[in-house]
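May I ask you to comment on the folded chain given beneath this request?
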Amino acid sequence: QVQLVESGGGLVQPGGSLRLSCAASGNIVSINFMGWYRQAPGKQRELVATITSGGPINYADTVKGRFTISRDNAKNTVTVYLQMDGLKPEDTADYYCYARTVTYAGYWGKGTPVTVSS
């Protein structure tokens, strides 16, 4: 089992920045893929950015050049960050952390809201 807890969401003005964090605990040694997804009201959940263990980083075209995903491995936890710069109103959504293990078990966090508004 893997547990994911997101933090860092909030209200920010257009052009501002936020950094989201996702702390993974439990069977973290089995995690080989993590990512951030978002879901705006009335829309489907969509990929924002993903990072694999020792592999490529992938961004949605809508966030390339503005968002940066990174991963920090500690002894008992793994933390994935999403640095969001140049935020736009269309970035407003609930942001969810996702982790997948080597056995293809997938886990979601409960989400953290991001609102971009003046």
Q: What stands out?
A: The longest strand covers residues 18-26. The chain is about 0% helix and 60% strand. The mean pLDDT is 95.
